[in-house]
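re: the backbone from monday

yeah here it is again, tokenized this time
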């Protein structure tokens, strides 16, 4: 039986999740890559072989999450590290004109999804007295900007949950961390702009944003600290950013 760490990454099919998957694999871990898009997970498996276990699951569906994680092959348990990465931003308008469907998508994915997965993984970690949960938040959880009230609220909830989770497992040996990136060029803006590439690209014009690999580098570093060390939270910005809406753009 393999002695390599088992890492579960949600939202593993793209962006930060995929980068985290590849970064942990590069360190010799085995990764349970969880996401909704089966074809992208199949691509990951094709690239990395049996070091990746594709897991098609929608984190918003508690029953589906419980069934999927409850039926993992024996050699893919226990889970040593959980990276709660699945998340999205939807809608850009003020609350009084925004589509409430956008609120539901963000609340169900960013908050309930994190809780659904954590509720399945944390009990085993506490019972064993070891394990590490890394929640992916956002600088948006620390401040608010126009048109982002609900998204910012979901990421603020992640921060509150992370702090409370750390208190709840105190004394168990389980570590709880959070990584909050600023501007990262992934499919994030493309999703928020409903697939419209021009405005999605304009978000990053004139500056150098973080890459998904930059964030994954921090996540793997956090997860590689000695067992007695907890990196509680990390705020990660590109040098061209100093807060939400506070960016330095270079003229072309």
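seq for it, each position gets an aa:
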């Amino acid at each position: 039986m393999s002695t390599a760490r088992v890492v579960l990454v949600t939202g593993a099919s793209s962006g930060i999740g995929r980068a985290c998957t590849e970064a942990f694999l590069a360190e010799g871990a085995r990764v349970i890559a969880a996401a909704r898009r089966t074809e992208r997970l199949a691509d990951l498996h094709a690239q990395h072989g049996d070091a990746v276990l594709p897991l098609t699951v929608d984190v918003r569906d508690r029953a589906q999450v419980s069934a999927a994680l409850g039926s993992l092959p024996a050699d893919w348990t226990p889970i040593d590290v959980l990276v709660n990465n699945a998340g999205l931003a939807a809608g850009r308008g003020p609350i009084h004109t925004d589509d409430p469907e956008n609120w539901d998508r963000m609340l169900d994915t960013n908050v309930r999804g994190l809780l659904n997965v954590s509720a399945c993984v944390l009990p085993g970690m506490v019972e064993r007295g070891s394990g590490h949960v890394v929640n992916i938040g956002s600088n948006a959880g620390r401040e608010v900007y126009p048109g982002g009230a609900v998204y910012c609220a979901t990421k603020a909830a992640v921060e509150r949950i992370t702090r409370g989770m750390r208190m709840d497992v105190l004394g168990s040996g389980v570590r709880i961390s959070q990584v909050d990136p600023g501007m990262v060029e992934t499919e994030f803006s493309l999703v928020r702009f409903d697939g419209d590439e021009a405005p999605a690209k304009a978000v990053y014009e004139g500056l150098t944003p973080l890459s998904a690999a930059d964030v994954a580098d921090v996540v793997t570093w956090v997860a590689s600290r000695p067992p007695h060390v907890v990196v509680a939270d990390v705020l990660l910005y590109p040098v061209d950013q100093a807060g939400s809406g506070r960016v330095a753009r270079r003229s072309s």
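Strands lie at 6-10, 30-35, 52-56, 81-84, 132-136, 175-181, 233-236, 241-243, 246-247. The CA atoms of residues 33 and 54 lie 5 Å apart.
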